[in-house]
Structure prediction request, 339 residues.
Amino acid sequence: MQIAVDAMGGDHAPGEIVRGAVEAARERIADIILVGDQRVLEPELNPLHPPANIDIVHTEQVVAMDEQPALALRRKRDASIMVATRLVKEGRAAAVVSAGSTGAQMAAALLVLGRSGKIQRPAIATLIPTLKGPKLLLDAGANVDCRPEHLLEFAMMGNVYAARVMGIREPRVGLLNIGTEACKGNEQTLGAFNMLKAANLNFIGNIEGRDIFTGDTDVIVCDGFVGNVLLKFGEGMAQALFTMIAGEVKKTLRAKIGAALVLPALRALKKQVDYTEYGGAPLLGVQGVSIICHGSSNARAIKNAIKVAVRCVEEGLVTGLGQLPGVNTGEEVIQCRPC
Prediction:
């Protein structure tokens, strides 16, 4: 299996991207096609003594993080993310992985690959750590303004991903809301609740923010605005907590001794909440596998993202999403009365 990697996208590109790709190739996770400026990539590759199953497709154009995605892609038809996505469309690669501009990757996927089946709104599905292992959250930032039917689509796509890729039988689907009661929320969540309840899903109802980390919900559904804020809040909180702990254990000798005793447990905990362990987030709802990575991804994150891409291809994710029925957007949404 060949995976196309946008070597020019990300805060630490191309160095960390190349390192991660080489590690994946060396471990035979997949054969790698690095897409980017060959004159820049070869000096990064040569000291690593790359294996034979890694190649370069040359292109000099790059979409910067601060560029308007649609406009940039119209002017830069040979941008690295566009070329990498075309490799998937042409069948030369099974998936694309990038840590570059999320907007540019989404735009490239829609322009080149197109939507999957009857899906209206592709969504970013990301794993979040919980007390019962990783669970799926979507949308994590692809759609900031959503209608109730879009949330239903997210739930349907998340259900397929959880079942096929995560191996969860009858995934429990929850709607993120400000209360568990059916009559809580805004027009968007009230309408989505009724649609989800009527759908052929294992819908467990509304869940609150504090319920996420119990791990009792396998697929957590929300719009991209809420999902992205929640995701970054969680990342920031985890970093702040470990910084606070590190500061406290340095204050007294007793604290230092205690910290030494629990250090293995702390390292294991840090690994559980480290985004690099989860690699990347698939863009669900496009006709191909497109894995979106954190902008600050290091080599480990890229290698793990390639693992995610391989898993999505092996489990036939795109085929499963293509079989989803369309959502009827013409019906009036019946909202429950206020409590």
